[in-house]
Write a structure and sequence with these properties.
Elements (H helix, E strand, L loop, with lengths): L42 H12 L12 E5 H4 L1 E4 L7 E8 L8 H9 L7 H13 L4 E4 L7 E6 L5 E3 L5 E3 L5 E4 L4 E4 L3 E2 L12 E7 L2 H11 L4 H6 L8 H16 L2 E4 L2 E4 L8 E4 H8 L5 H10 L3 E5 L3 E5 L10 H12 L20 H15 L3 E2 L5 E2 L1 H6 L8 E2 L10 E2 L4 H12 L6 E12 L7 E12 L15 H14 L6 E4 L5 E11 L2 E9 L1 H6 L6 E7 H4 L18 E10 L4 H12 L3 E10 L8 E10 L8 H19 L2 E2 L3
Parallel strand pairs: 1-12, 2-5, 17-21
Antiparallel strand pairs: 3-11, 3-12, 3-13, 4-11, 5-8, 6-7, 8-9, 9-10, 14-16, 15-16, 18-20, 19-20, 21-22, 22-26, 23-24, 24-25, 25-26, 27-29, 27-30, 28-29
Helix pairs in contact: 3-4, 4-7, 17-18
Amino acid sequence: AELGWNDDGSCLLLLDGGLPVGEPLDGLIEVAVTPNRPDCLSVVGIARDLAAYFRKPLHVPKFRCTETTETTESVARVEVEDKEGCPRYTARVVRSVQVGPSPPWLARAVEAAGARSINNVVDITNYVLMELGHPLHAFDLDKIAGHEIIVRRAREGETLCTLDGEKRVLTREDLLITDPSKPIALAGIMGGENSEISEATVNVFLESAYFDPVRIRRTRRRLEVQTDSSFRFERGTDREKIHLALNRAAQLIREVAGGEITRGVIDVVGPRSKSQPLTLRIARANDILGAQLDGSEIAEILVHIGCEIVHSDHHQLVVVCPSHRVDISREIDLIEEIGRLYGYDKIEATIPYIPARATAVDGSEEIRQRIAALFADEGLTEVVTYSFTDRESHERSRQTTDGVVELVNPLSQGQSVLRTSLLPSILATISHNHKRGNMDMAICEIAKSYHRKGGPSEPYEEREHAIAALSGCRPLHWSQPASAWDFFDVKGIAERVLDRLGIVADGLERLERPELHPGRSAAFVKGGQEICVFGQLHPEVHDAWELKGSVFLAEFDLEALMPHVDLTRSFREIAQYPAVARDLALLVGRDVPAGEIEATLRAAGGEILESLHLFDVYEGKRIAAGKRSLAYSLIFRARDRTLTDDEVNTVQDRLLAAVAEKHGAQLRSA
C-alpha cells in the first residue's frame, strides 16, 4: 500500500536492487484548474499549455486502431432525437473482450488520479479521460435492446437507477441515453446499472459524445450529483476531437482486454456552427498590456496555443482559435493569452494614463449625495440591500402586492419579485441583526422601488426613496445616559434633512398607514404630496418580523421631494436689535396635534415672531384627564427697533386668543 500498489498478492514484485529506499516511483503533480480552462483538465491539456509557454513542440503519443472487416454500423445503431442536447455522438464496438482486473500500471495510474480501479475496461475509460480530457462511457452491448442507442429528453417522472445505486426521478430537462425499451444512462453524468460493464461482458459499446454544457449543469445541480464526466461536460469539451479519445480507448481495450475492434466509427453530427475568426488589433493589445510587441511576436504566441492566422498586416491579425479553447471568444481573451504567455514580469510597470475631465454633477445626483451626507451626519450607517424580495416579505410588511413586478427567472423563491417599497428590505436587515444579538441600530438606504402601471405586459416605473430606521438604544456617550430611540428622534432626523435641503413643509399631518403605529406616525406635506412619512413600526408588523424592541422609521419620497429642494445658500443680516424670549405652556386636548398649534401661533405672531419651537410635552399630576401641556419657546424681534414689553404682551395676548378660539387652548397656570 505504501508503494501505491493494490492488495493483489497473486504475483511477485521484482525491484532493482540498486533502488534507494524511500525514493518515489513516480512524480505526482496537483494542478488547480480555473473554471474557464476545461482544456487543461487532462495530462495532454497541461502539456499543451506548458509547450505554448516554453515555445516547445508538443509530442502526443501516436496510436491507431487495428480493425476487423465487420463494420460498426452493422453491429449497432445510434439515433439522436435531441440534437440541441447532443450535437455530436460517436461510438465504436469492441467484440470478444475479457473483462477482469486491470494490469498494475493501469490500476496505479487510475488510483493516482483519484479514481478507484474497477476493471480493465472501465479503468481504460477513466485513464483516457485523464489523458486526453474527454469523458467516455462503456456499455455492455448485449444489455442494449436491439443494439440500438437513442439519445432523447427524459419523460416527466421517468426513473433510472444509476451506477451509484440511486434511483433518479427525471424531468423533461434531463438528457438520457436509452435503448428502445429503457433508459440506460444519464447523458454526460453517470451510467445506469442495467448496462454496466461486468465480468460477464463480452461485447463493449464505447460512447464518446458532446453534450450541451447548460443541460448537463442543470441536471447535475438538480440531482445533486457530480462526476468527473459532468465536471468536464458542464465546462465545455472539444467537440471536434471527440473521436480521438474514442479511438484511443478502443485500442487500449484491445491491448489490455483483448477483443476485436469493428471497422469504422458511428458519427451522428448535428448542426455545426463554424468557428468565427477574431480580429486582434495590435495597437489595442499593446495599449491593454502596456507592452511594445510587434505583429510577428504576437502571431508566434498565438500559433503556439493552436491558433491559425488567416490574415495579418501591420495593424491587425485575423485569428481562428482552436476548438479546445472554449474560453476564447473575444479580442480581449486573445490579449489575455498574449500577456500570460509573453510574461507579465517582462512588461514594464507604468502609471496608467487617465485623462482628467471635469464633469457636471446631475442635479438629482447632487441631492442624493446631499441626503447621504445628511444621514451620515445623523450617525446613520448606510446599508445596501437587494432589490429582489418576495410577496411574503411584502405581506409581512403590510405593503401592497398590487402592481408588483415578477421576475421571469428568479435566483430563488425568496427573490421572485422587485420590491414596491424599501421597507421589506430594511426590516429584513434589522431582523437579521436582531436574531444575532445586534439590537442597537441606526441605518439608512437610498434606493429604488418598482411598480407596475398596468398588466404584466405593461412597463413598470421606478421611484427613488430614502429611508432611515432606528432600533434599540442610542450610542453610549459620556455626556448622557444610555436611552432608547423614540418617536422624536426619527422626527428630528426628518426635520433636519428637510431643513438642510431648503424645504419648508406646508404642514405636518397625522398619518394612517398600515405599516406604522396608529397615533404614532405623521407626514410632512408639500404641494399636496407627502414628501416624508415617519413614525413607529406597527406592532403587528413588528411581531411578523420577530423584532425585539421598538423600531422607528422615516421614509422620503425623492420623486415628490426633489422639485422643492433649494440648495441655494442664503445669508441674513445680523440682527441689530435685541430679542425678547417668552415661554408659553398651553393646556390642550390630547387629540389636538402640536403641529396645528404651531401653525396657529406662527400665523397670529406676525413679523415680529422670529421663531418658536416645542420644548416640552407633559401629562400627569395637576393636568386634567384628557388634557396635556405643550410648552413653546418664542423669540420676538423687530428689525427696526427695540421691542417694548407692551408690544410683546399685545402679540402674546393675540396668540393666546387665537389658539383658544381654534383649539380650545388655555394658558397653564401651574
